[in-house]
Write a structure and sequence with these properties.
Blueprint lengths: L5 E5 L48 H21 L6 H6 L9 H23 L4 E16 L4 E14 H6 L7 E15 L2 E9 L2 H9 L3 H9 L6 H8 L20 E2 L2 H11 L18 H12 L23 E3 L2 E2 L1 H4 L1 H9 L16 E7 L9 E4 L9 E9 L2 E6 L3 E6 L16 E10 L4 E4 L12 E5 L4 E3 L4 E5 L8 E6 L9 E10 L8 E7 L26 E5 L8 E3 L4 H8 L10 E7 L4 E5 L1 H4 L9 E7 L8 E6 L9 E7 L3 E2 L6 E6 L5 E8 L2 E7 L5 E7 L6 E2 L20 E10 L6 E5 L7 E5 L4 E6 L5 E9 L8 E10 L9 H4 L3 E6 L20 E6 L8 E5 L2 H5 L6 E8 L10 E6 L11 E7 L2
Length: 936
């Protein structure tokens, strides 16, 4: 806020000090409202009290009054300067103070306070090396009958402290103090205006008030201390003028956190140390102090921390609520503007999870206590100055100069001042019970979404907040106000607010969303509003041809209802109910991308009217603002996973059986065989053999068993399948994630008997020769094992597989042979290893006929199956692996060779087992190849 200022530069002069101590207290800043007595003392009567009735004085009288006040302030500044104070000791304020009794009381109080200030300034190197002060005179009123003048004076200054001068002699830091409001009463005595009283708020008086000590008692405490050398001040701080590496091990791991923009927080603090951001935030200057409100604003608006708004939003309360937020003066958290609550929130409460009946989002700044040597720009310092364990003041660190933190503050208002300005108790020990340093490490939650109505700043117009003008009930795009409610002659207003560059990802889960307005007028009548969103992915501005009333409503139409019953007052801010459902509907639109525009439509359903400030008016009034959208969205997954589909997979050459592809709605873990069940018709023995995959896609392999029929794969939810947020399939509770409509395979079973003319066995020519000797293809049985002289027997089976369709996929192939007669010698299943199958298509060797050379002929694939060693009803079975099924010839014959893995047992005797061959007279005993297949 711009102010006219009168500039006075005072060079440092030599003065002397002699001050009288007197009992006096005043309220300067009480942060924890309700915890201290806030009754004003004589020297701190609120400057907002009514001025005396009277007339505006003449220019000459005004100048005379100003000259007295200017001399009064000049002496005060000299008293705190680096000059010799002997002159002041002798003369004090000279003849500037009235002879009235009230003036004598004021003088004793002020002299006592000044002596405390001077002593403390000497101890902590806070005396003024150079200074300027600025006085803004307002509302000068003279009561002629009483020769009394009353006025408001706004004091501001620029000071170079002794500390700053010593830290950087060539370029010392200039500290600005703002907005010290004085109510000064003067009395005219012998044609000269003299000071009767000066009532103002000041941080030292706050210390006196809270400590319940007199200035004399505080001065006695200060006299116990010695001046600390400047080198010790720097050593004690121990801070380099560079960014300090900190350890966030104290913070809980949360992938949704984002960095704290400490530089931008500092920029905000410096900008608003003097110019309060009244567009969006109330000030608590007259209600216990604005210090923590100012710190929270800097961290949120500049530092990009997320607000912590509980759901449901508590009803408006002057005492504040849980969380960390401020929507308006009635809807705010105590941690936003209370020193102790802010500390509790930042260091612990922001980690809270769900509580009874309240959803805690865990948003907001996260930090922890550090030593002063770990403090950084953008961090917070808090002070407790009277030993009652109630923390009284908070500031934000805006710079570090040669190791000394410089802070910005409200109540008192400073932009850059040494942190010791407010440290009345602790020097030099930095007692942690009286001063604490809070490092802000990061913000929990995603970056906040803040979007204001924008417009053309040249024409001061915007069609992004527009709606029905109640006069005539017609559309207007450029009114200074936007109306909510009924037209004057009947009919309903429909108003729209379009927000641009809204940084919300598509399909984001909206935690909360509010629109806040500056109120235009005083209203008590109830207004009933429906709020919904323009049902498009990127909303356009409002025009005569496309007004808010023509915007499509979403389907289904579920607006947020806003019944406005509370009183509204001009210039205050008010907010809607939570409209997260409306925003979530918009950002779930196909085509929505972060950075698009969205519009909110407000439709009247009642019989009264209220209005809010539009861009056109807000752009010309610095303390008003147009509508503002505040949103928090979550990156955490709140939707439980589900099964999207279970479908047949293409044949896998590396697997036998049937393959299914199971797709989930998102990445999951914990998927295993136990999660699946088969629904079969006409087949038996089918079972799930393996599950492989990751993310949201898994492959399930199923043994198709035997027989012809259908095999369907389904999933039964037992809460063992979870997503990355540990949410179980379908949500908590078994069975709610079942998927019982998986796709089916139709399998056909074909049983083939071996061809008699190509069946038989071959005996090795000599032991260890590896060459066939004699072939037998006419016997009703063939044998495997060894003959006398340890010669190996190898058996052959030949199948005509050309009857299979040429395009089938084989899911399983089973070979069965029936034992014929008793075992000769030792049972080779006990001495000769496994009975294996080799396969070749169309046959081994050079012809289909069984010849001796087939003994050693090359196989298409070796060891593709192993027979069971214990027969079932004299039948031995073997299941071909995937390499074996690929060798089955769909257009001709397929030949199998069976052999034990050991050629003999070195006993020189015959040891073999006989199986019925294709020449066996009983067809039911002949070798079988059972093939299950399906059409891809």
């Amino acid at each position: 806020m711009a102010r006219q200022k009168r500039f006075v530069f005072l060079v440092v002069i030599v003065v002397a000090l002699f001050l009288v101590i007197a009992n006096s207290t005043t309220l300067a800043q009480a942060i924890n409202k309700g915890q201290i007595d806030v009754t004003p003392m004589p020297t701190s009567t609120s400057s907002q009290e009514p001025l005396q009735s009277g007339k505006i004085p003449s220019i000459e009288e005004q100048e005379a009054i100003k000259n007295t006040i200017q001399l009064y302030f000049e002496i005060r500044y000299r008293a705190l300067s680096m000059s010799d104070s002997n002159d002041f000791k002798q003369n004090g304020f000279g003849d500037l103070i009235s002879d009235l009794h009230d003036a004598d009381v004021f003088l004793q109080q002020e002299l006592g306070k000044l002596q405390v200030e001077i002593k403390r300034a000497e101890l902590d190197h806070l005396r003024y090396a150079q200074y300027k002060f600025f006085l803004d005179f307002r509302n000068i009123v003279v009561d002629i009958s009483g020769n009394t003048a009353t006025l408001i004076v706004i004091e501001e200054n620029e000071v170079i402290y002794d500390l700053s001068q010593q830290l950087n002699p060539k370029n010392p830091l200039v500290t600005h103090r703002y907005n010290v409001e004085h109510m000064i009463v003067l009395h005219k005595e012998q044609d000269q205006w003299k000071i009767v009283s000066d009532n103002y708020n000041d941080y030292l008086w706050a210390v006196l008030r809270r400590s319940k000590k007199t200035p004399e008692e505080i001065l006695n405490d200060l006299n116990m201390r010695e001046v600390q050398p400047i080198s010790e001040v720097i050593t004690q701080a121990g801070i380099e003028n560079t960014e300090t590496v900190t350890d966030d091990a104290f913070l809980l791991v949360d992938n949704s956190t984002h960095p704290y923009n400490r530089d931008a927080a500092v920029d905000y603090a410096l900008k608003h140390a003097n110019n309060y951001n009244l567009e969006y935030y109330p000030t608590y200057d007259g209600e216990g102090g604005d210090c923590t409100n100012f710190v929270s604003q800097s961290i949120y608006e500049g530092g990009n921390a997320s607000m912590f708004i509980p759901s449901p939003l508590p009803a408006p309360s002057p005492n504040g609520q849980s969380g960390w937020y401020l929507l308006n003066e009635g809807q705010r958290a105590s941690a936003w503007n209370d020193v102790g609550a802010f500390y509790t929130f930042v260091t612990s409460e922001s980690f809270l999870e769900a509580g009874p009946g309240v959803e805690w989002y865990g948003e907001g700044p996260q930090g922890y206590l550090v030593d002063i040597n770990q403090i950084m720009k953008g961090d917070v310092i808090q002070y407790e100055d009277n030993g009652d364990s109630t923390w009284d003041h908070a500031v934000i660190v805006v710079d570090i100069v040669n190791g000394v933190p410089q802070v910005a503050s409200h109540s008192d208002d400073f932009d850059k001042t040494p942190y010791t300005t407010f440290d009345w108790v602790n020097k030099p020990a930095l007692d942690p019970t009286h001063i604490r340093f809070i490092h802000i490490e990061r913000s929990n939650g995603n970056p906040p979404v803040k979007s204001e109505i924008e417009g053309n700043t040249i024409t001061n117009q915007s069609s992004d907040d527009a709606g029905t003008n109640p006069t005539g009930c017609v559309f207007s795009a450029t009114n200074n106000e936007v109306y909510l409610g009924q037209c004057f002659g009947g009919g309903n207003t429909v108003s729209g607010f379009r927000f641009n560059n809204v940084q919300i990802p598509q399909d984001a889960q909206i935690k909360y969303a509010y629109v806040t307005f500056a109120v235009d007028g005083q209203y008590t009548d109830t207004v009933n509003i429906q709020i919904y969103g323009d049902d498009v992915a990127n909303s356009s501005t409002f025009t005569t041809s496309s007004p808010p009333s023509s915007r499509p409503t979403p389907s289904p139409f579920n607006p947020v209802l806003w019944d406005i019953t509370e009183q509204w007052n001009l210039g205050t801010r008010r907010g809607t109910p939570d409209i997260s459902s409306v925003i979530e509907k918009i950002v779930s639109n196909h085509g929505w991308v972060s950075g698009n525009s969205l519009s909110l439509i407000f439709k009247n359903t009642g019989s009264h009217i209220r209005r809010v400030i539009a861009f056109e008016r807000a752009n010309t009034d610095l303390i008003l603002s147009p509508a503002r959208l505040i949103v928090a969205y979550g990156s955490e997954d709140v939707t439980p996973p589900s099964v999207s589909s279970i479908v047949r997979s293409p044949a896998n050459p590396n697997l036998t059986g049937l393959n299914f592809t199971v797709t989930f709605s998102e990445s999951v873990t914990g998927v295993d065989i136990a999660d699946f069940i088969l629904n079969t018709t006409g087949v038996s023995g089918a079972n799930v053999t393996s599950v492989n995959g990751s993310g949201n896609v898994y492959t399930v392999n199923v043994n198709s068993g035997s027989g012809s029929g259908t095999i369907q794969l389904n999933l039964l939810d037992d809460d063992s399948i979870i997503d990355s947020a540990s949410q179980p399939l379908g949500g908590a509770g078994t069975g709610n994630g079942n998927f019982l409509t998986g796709q089916s395979f139709t399998v056909t079973s074909l049983t083939l008997n071996s061809l008699a003319s190509q069946d038989g066995h071959i005996v090795e020519s000599t032991e260890n020769s590896g060459v066939g000797g004699t072939a037998n293809s006419t016997g009703t049985s063939f044998v495997a094992g060894d003959a006398t002289s340890d010669r190996q027997y190898v058996a052959f089976m030949h199948f005509d597989t050309s009857t299979l369709p040429d395009t089938v996929s084989i899911s399983s192939a089973t070979v069965k042979v029936r034992q014929q007669g008793a075992v000769t010698g030792t049972n080779p299943f006990t001495t000769h290893g496994n009975l294996l199958i080799d396969i070749q298509k169309p046959y081994f060797g050079t012809s289909a006929s069984l010849v001796a050379a087939d003994f050693q002929a090359v196989a298409g694939q070796s060891s593709v199956a192993t027979f069971i060693s214990t027969p079932i009803n004299s039948w031995y079975s073997a299941f071909l692996n995937s390499a074996g099924t690929l060798q089955i010839n769909l257009t001709g014959t397929t030949q199998l060779r069976i052999r034990f893995s050991l050629d003999d047992n070195d006993d020189n005797g015959a040891d073999y087992i006989a199986f019925a061959s294709g020449n066996n007279t009983a067809v039911a005993n002949r070798p079988q190849l059972i093939i299950q297949y399906y059409m891809p």
